[in-house]
Amino acid sequence: MVKKTASIQQDYYPRPPIATVLGHVDHGKTTLLDYIRKTNITAKEHGGITQHIGAYQIEVPEKIRKKESNYAAKITFIDTPGHEAFAKMRSHGATVADIAILVVAADDGVKPQTIESITHIKNAKIPAIVALNKIDLPEVNLEKVKKQLSKAGLTLEEYGGEVPLIPISAKTGNGIEKLLETIIFLTDLFQIKAKINEPTSGVIIESSVSKFKGITGSIVLRSGNLRIGDEVINDNQEFKVRAMHNWQGKQLSEIKAGDPAEILGWKVIPIVGSLIVKKAEMQLETRPHEELDKFVQKPIVAPEHTEDAQRIKLIIKADTQGTLDAIIDGLKKVEIDIIHKGVGAITESDILLAKISKALVIGFSQKPNDQVLKLAQSEKVLIKTYNIIYELFDEIVDVIEALKKGDLVTILGEAKVLELFNFKGETIIGARVIKGRIARGDAVKVMRNKTEIGRTKIKSLKHHKEDITKAETGSEIGIGLAQKMEMLTGDSIISIG
């Protein structure tokens, strides 16, 4: 790599480069950042995948800074999710960044999201580094992966191109120092600096509603500075910055170009990818009321039934705006009508709207409280909750088909058949409750593998020789059914509501 020459202008100063981490799911993006940050973010994510864009900042190791005193003192990382549902979020990440780090697992090679990430990098027109991860695994073929990358459109440095490739192990730390040094080298090479007195501008990389903080928006500042008390503009809202926190929750009084922060004080949820600027540095344009309406939450009203009656209606609530966007994008090909969507907890208003509209309520990382659950049960509104986005997508088609057939039910409990006994001409089922609870009088369906073999009711329930009304998880029980069925050991008796 030949270093470009550039005059160091006195009105510029070094700022933290913003590096986005992209790549295929499970290739080690968050594990890499975990090693760099010496934290354990991966263990906190449902299903071991990152599901929100997060921004983190580290101090450049002193060993690297000593080589050139003019280097940036910090690096800001944007961790972008790898699952295909988050393509839109990954695109935002690449747009914000100065440098892209493409993580590729040496044992897995180039995959669909690897190619998609390369497209985002090219569209963003930013320099890239390939972090070839998992080199600690046995029998990895590095040359094979390098050829795959070249075929995918990356011109690697060792093949005469400009993209450096650093073999690393995010697990052991091998090659991490070289990776950080390369980031700083590219920062200097491409003269990534901040201009003194440049107008303040930041990009929203995530937004959510917190029970304790209210509306929050995570930003990365591209230029200028921002302090608590500054009046800012984001699309059609103006507000005063009430508080700022770094990724570790520490309160900040000021951030500068290249810094990430969580901002408090918003009036409405900011759109991921939108800009935030200082009011004092620009004249707010007068915009039509209909433009403003896009950012103001309306009272919930039941929609007119103009769509095909066979289309299932959904109400979707998610924990963050970025996740909500990814869910909406992922459901575009499914025959549904989304009658309401939002960020925050599932509320009684959502249940009442679902009742009026005959809709299914979907919650992502949003568990309804007891009051909402009781209302849903009394109004016979179904709520499905998920913590992993690909599980939502995998299951939603089956859920919709079951709804159309009137076959979607609430599962109250499940028992596994262990033995079968004949008592006075009646079959008594010896079973263990493996989930929820089983009660006398429950309607049940009997499943053999994935096939339903019949439905009936529980006529009698015993624990040893004692008659009982209900059994909880872990209990071994005797079940008598209201009608005779050909049962086998291993069958499931599922109590439904």
Question: What's the arrangement of secondary structure elements?
Answer:
Blueprint: E1 12-14, E2 18-23, H1 29-37, E3 54-59, H2 62-65, E4 74-79, H3 87-96, E5 99-105, H4 112-124, E6 128-133, H5 142-151, E7 165-167, H6 176-189, E8 193-195, E9 201-210, E10 214-223, E11 225-227, E12 231-234, E13 237-240, E14 243-245, E15 251-252, E16 254-256, E17 260-264, E18 275-278, H7 289-293, E19 312-318, H8 321-330, E20 336-343, H9 348-357, E21 359-364, H10 370-378, E22 383-386, H11 389-404, E23 411-423, E24 426-439, E25 443-448, E26 451-463, E27 466-467, E28 470-472, E29 476-481, E30 492-496
Parallel strand pairs: 2-4, 2-5, 5-6, 6-7, 19-20, 19-21, 21-22
Antiparallel strand pairs: 1-8, 3-4, 9-10, 9-18, 10-17, 11-16, 12-13, 12-18, 14-15, 14-17, 23-24, 23-30, 24-28, 24-29, 25-26, 25-30, 26-27, 26-29
Helix pairs in contact: 3-4, 9-10
